[in-house]
Each structure stands twice: as C-alpha cells, then as structure tokens.
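User: Show me a protein chain along with its predicted structure.
Assistant: Here is one chain, sequence first, then structure tokens.
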Amino acid sequence: MDDRQARIAKNEATFRATNRELERASEEAGGTGDAVLEVLCECGKSGCSGLITLTVAEYDDAHSQKDRFVVLPGHETVEIETIVERRPAYFVVDKFGEAEEIAEGRSGRSAR
C-alpha cells in the first residue's frame, strides 16, 4: 500500500469517528433508528465535503463491520476497497489488505 492509500484509509476512519459523534448527538436528542442523519462522505479523499443522508439504522447497518464505510457514488477507491452495497444516495465499501488492518486498528499504522 502506498502512502496515499494509507492516508485515505486513515482519513476514512477519522470521518467515520466524526459521523459516530453526529449519530450519538442525534440519539441523545431523541432520535431513533428511523431518525435521519446527514453524515460526511467517508471516502477519505482530500477536499471531499460531500454529505450523505440516511437513517440511523442504515448507518448502523453499514458499519456492522469495522472495515466498512459509507461513501458517495464515485468516491470509492478500488485499490483498497470493494463495494458491498449500492444505495441510490451512497455506497457501502469494505476494505481489504492493509487498508482493512488500518480500519480495524490491527496494524502499526493505527487509524486512531
């Protein structure tokens, strides 16, 4: 994995952590599984400020595994991830190889 791909994997984990805080705030405000969230695209690409609208339940389902992220269509990075679910407004991608290890915090290059 080159440095650019490692940076993208780390950035994705950071965006997911930010989105988890948004989700937590929604739940504290009384949001339920069908409450709508607007989260940051978790593509990890520099300069991306895309927003994805989905429910709390959809967001939780997308992150059923530590190495899965929600990204806008066209924002997937085929060198380090595979699309596992296509929704009209977003894709769920699954990391593989070293990017998976980074996302799961298993390598020396911890995502957090």
